[in-house]
Design a protein that fits this description.
mainly alpha; DUF2189 domain-containing protein; transmembrane; DUF2189
Length: 271
């Protein structure tokens, strides 16, 4: 009976009671660690490039479809692209799973990398809902900001060239840039602080979303400069992936996701 109970607990989708609101120690990391994370992330990609690149291709397809859908609405594309960064940690769960397999000495496999999601499905599901709501709210808010500064329809119909011309020639162009990216920065800052290690913790340990998010916030405050530089690194790498007609995401997303796993490993210790 004990063995049956143990097996049942192993596939439970809810956090164990002893894991609820548990405090995990976080440690300081120096800025030099960022390059090590990227090297380790690259090594994980090379361990099974087909699995990592399969995820990367899916990200690129989503990016390309998003570009096509928003071709006539550049403001929406910018908002959706920045929103993509908000939900990125959750979308990278499979890549975290690959890094975890490599760490355990297992052969990284695409389908096996998704197995950890089932083991903490409730908390991961809640996290997905929270990130999804944040993205939807940001996209809607960005539309409101655009509507305040411009005639929404005229900007949409003008396309990218028209939007760029409006930004640099109209009196309210610079005010729009400050408002749009200022509010977007606040969203990104909140998402990063509460999510830099959250998805990784939820995947590996049966913790609740509150424990994971508060651990993430403490990790950011423990190494503020390193986390600022890490956030900039993520933005630049993913931004370059989007700027290359989304094809660069095939490499950029797996690299950042694998590196993020090693960042988590350096910052969060087992109690």
């Amino acid at each position: 009976m004990a063995q049956i109970a143990s097996k049942s607990a192993g596939v439970s989708s809810a956090p164990h009671a002893e894991q609820l609101f548990k405090s995990y120690p976080v440690q300081h990391v120096e800025p030099a660690a960022i390059m090590r994370w990227l090297r380790q992330g690259w090594a994980d990609m090379k361990a099974n490039p087909s699995a990592s690149l399969a995820y990367g291709i899916m990200f690129a397809i989503v990016g390309i479809l998003m570009s096509i859908v928003s071709a006539a609405n550049p403001a929406f594309f910018v908002a959706a692209s920045t929103g993509f960064l908000l939900v990125g940690p959750f979308l990278a769960l499979g890549l975290y799973g690959l890094s975890h397999q490599i760490e355990q000495g297992q052969a990284p496999r695409f389908w096996s990398s998704l197995r950890g999601i089932r083991e903490n499905a409730i908390s991961l599901g809640l996290y997905a809902v929270v990130l999804g709501m944040m993205m939807v709210f940001w996209v809607r808010l960005s539309a409101v900001i655009t509507g305040i500064f411009f005639n929404q329809m005229s900007v949409d119909m003008a396309g990218y060239a028209g939007l760029w011309n409006a930004l640099i020639t109209m009196e309210q162009g610079w005010m729009f840039i400050l408002a749009f990216f200022g509010v977007g920065l606040l969203f990104a800052l909140f998402a990063f602080m509460t999510g830099v290690v959250t998805a990784q913790m939820l995947l590996e340990r049966k913790v609740d979303i509150v424990t994971a998010a508060t651990t993430s916030v403490r990790a950011v405050f423990k190494s503020p400069l390193t986390m600022l530089l890490w956030a900039l690194t993520i933005t630049v790498v993913i931004g370059l992936g989007i700027a290359t007609f989304d094809l660069g995401l095939i490499i950029a997303m797996p690299l950042i996701a694998h590196a993020s796993w090693h960042a988590y490993r350096d910052m969060v210790q087992e109690k």
